[in-house]
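Below is one such protein, fold included:
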Amino acid sequence: MQYTAILILFGSILRTECMPRSQQKMMSGISPSIQLSLNSDTGSFMIYVNHTVWFKSGPIAVYLNGAWSTTEDGSLKQQTHGFYIGEDTWGLFSATEIVWAAKGGELFYTVFKMYDDVPAIVFEQVFPNGASNTSVQGSLMSSFPTLNITDVQNMSGQYGYLTFSGNMAATVHVDDWSNAESLPGGGSGGFPLVVFDKKMENAVVIAPASQFMAASQGVWKGMNGSYLGFGLLGSLAKVRDDNTC
């Protein structure tokens, strides 16, 4: 069973060096807040940070046997979904698993994990039978989670981002989140991606949680807008069922 996982981790940016000791102690007890609002019938979601929407989902997409299947055009069809609880190195979590069928009948699973004691969300992609003929032009052969970045063009000045690219991650990219379509992707970089608010009080880190060398992110155009997707590199020719690419 082959999977890649993307981690979204939230934290507060505390500049305590300028605070009196009493206030530092009070601030250290604040628990950051991140919530996932999920529609398990469609796979769509929103991510809230301190009760404010930071991210809205875009369509799920996967390239299998030489063809794209997406929830946007209905070619990626939900078969079933379920809920379970478990524990891993991050601690206790509750999870929603959705089973999809691509155009050729190939199965593709998406998993949402929310943790009890860690301000993190993990998104998993599962290829239960592996996959073949997956090499495609572009940064990605799978996109989950997918963030809708069409609306962020109207959010200039509210959020910024920081990421890296190039050989040995030598180039630093810092820009307004409204310019998210200019993010580097594929083998050239884009991880980790940090999104922060204008007051520099809150930040979200998006990074691979597994399959680091095969993970990628990239901007792609759909029927209804522009999207930032996370998943496996588009250069992968196949995904085996023995935990190798």
